[in-house]
């Protein structure tokens, strides 16, 4: 379970505990459906290819202590 799924699960749990009017519950359910689509798009994304560039550290020489 990733962070998105955990948040979605927590929101659904709180929604079950709440005594909300039907129209408010429908509005929140619509939001959760949109959020679930975001989760699915995140999970389906293509991994970003790693670019292996040479690492060069450019440091000034300084006396220590």
Structure description:
- The chain is mainly α.
- It has a domain at 3-44.
- It is built from two helices and no strands.
- The protein has helices spanning 3-17, 22-44.
- Helix 1 (3-17) packs antiparallel against helix 2 (22-44).
- The termini are far apart.
- The model has no long low-confidence stretch (mean pLDDT 84).
Q: What overall form do the CA principal axes indicate?
A: elongated
Question: What is the mean pLDDT?
Answer: 84
Q: Measure the end-to-end span.
A: 49 Å
Fraction of residues in helices?
Answer: 55-70%
- Largest sheet descriptor: none
Q: Low-confidence segments, ≥5 residues, pLDDT <50? A: none
**C-alpha Rg (nearest Å):** 23 Å
Listing every helix as H and every strand as E from the N terminus to the C terminus, the arrangement reads HH
Decide which structural class fits the backbone. mainly alpha
Estimated share of beta-strand residues: under 5%
Note the main attributes of this structure:
65 residues, mainly alpha, 2 helices, 58% helix, 0% strand
What's the short story on this structure?
With 65 residues, the protein is mainly alpha-helical.
Please specify the SSE layout and strand pairing.
Blueprint: H1 3-17, H2 22-44
